[in-house]
Design a protein that fits this description.
globular; 74% helix; 142 residues; mainly alpha; single chain
Length: 142
């Protein structure tokens, strides 16, 4: 290992991977909306399909996605600041996932169960004392 390099533990690797996947998904969806907008124009019901709404949707998804990508990088580097946005992202994932658990469609229900379970596990891991030690650099081999 080079000077200044840090060995990443399994907890940190797990949460960094989850946050990375969430960031990629949100960024990918923002790009998808841009592509569909260019391809088809604004479609759908008038209350949610106007230039201001679509622009806001794109900004929100891209900002959250890029923010999570930065947080995943921070977690991978063992930076303590990256925990707060990662916990917030899991809470938002629960806000989306829990209602999907009660959905009528099988795919929606499955997505809701997986998203909710993953968010719960991730937030628990992020808040454990072991994660605090990982992020503070304690218990490192000299």
């Amino acid at each position: 290992m080079t000077a200044g390099a840090r060995r990443i533990g399994p907890r940190l690797a797990f949460v960094a991977a989850v946050v990375l996947i969430e960031g990629l998904a949100l960024t990918g969806y923002g790009v998808f909306v841009i592509v569909e907008l260019a391809r088809l124009g604004i479609t759908g019901p008038a209350p949610v399909s106007n230039p201001a709404s679509v622009t806001l949707e794109i900004i929100i998804f891209l900002a959250m996605g890029i923010g999570l990508l930065v947080s995943a990088w921070g977690l991978w580097q063992g930076r303590r600041w990256a925990r707060a946005p990662s916990v917030l992202a899991q809470i938002l994932a629960l806000v989306v996932g829990v209602p999907l658990v009660g959905a009528v469609g099988g795919v929606e229900r499955t997505v809701g169960i997986v998203l909710s379970a993953l968010a719960i596990v991730t937030v628990v891991v992020l808040l454990t004392p072991g994660m605090t030690r990982d992020l503070s650099g304690e218990d490192e081999d000299a």
